[in-house]
Design goal:
Layout lengths: L1 H13 L12 H27 L13 E10 L2 E8 L2 E7 L4 E9 L5 H13 L1
Antiparallel strand pairs: 1-2, 2-3, 3-4
């Protein structure tokens, strides 16, 4: 926290009362102000990125949502697999550019890994 405070004060320090030999803001003062502004913008962008990665958990969630997308895996341009939970049942969907198709009803929703369920479904469909 002290580092952030110090970085925010750099522009104020750079514009403090100039000494006798430095009557106008020189290259050092301008560089410090530029660096402080750049650090402020980068810090703000990192904060926004961290909030978006957490899913903005502090926002209220939709009440009573019956459909939840558990995971998506891209297969190529405009094609992906999607694991969806609907009323306690998991469905594996194939999503393309022009249609959505149910590939498999996985049954009751479990909190296992998507990869393990996908491999089990592939083995089951081959037999």
């Amino acid at each position: 926290m002290r580092i952030i405070t110090a970085l925010l004060l750099i522009p104020a320090i750079a514009q403090a009362a100039p000494s006798a030999e430095m009557a106008s803001p020189g290259l050092l003062g301008s560089s410090l102000r530029l660096l402080a502004g750049l650090l402020l913008v980068v810090g703000f962008l990192l904060l926004l990125y961290a909030l978006s990665r957490r899913g903005l958990a502090w926002l209220p969630k939709a009440k009573g949502s019956l459909i939840q997308v558990r995971e998506m895996r891209p297969l190529g341009p405009k094609k992906s697999l999607c694991l969806v939970e609907v009323r306690g049942r998991e469905l594996l969907l194939g999503i393309g550019a022009d249609r959505i198709e149910m590939l498999k009803d996985l049954g009751e929703a479990t909190r296992g890994e998507f990869e393990a369920q996908l491999q089990a479904g592939i083995r089951e469909s081959r037999s």
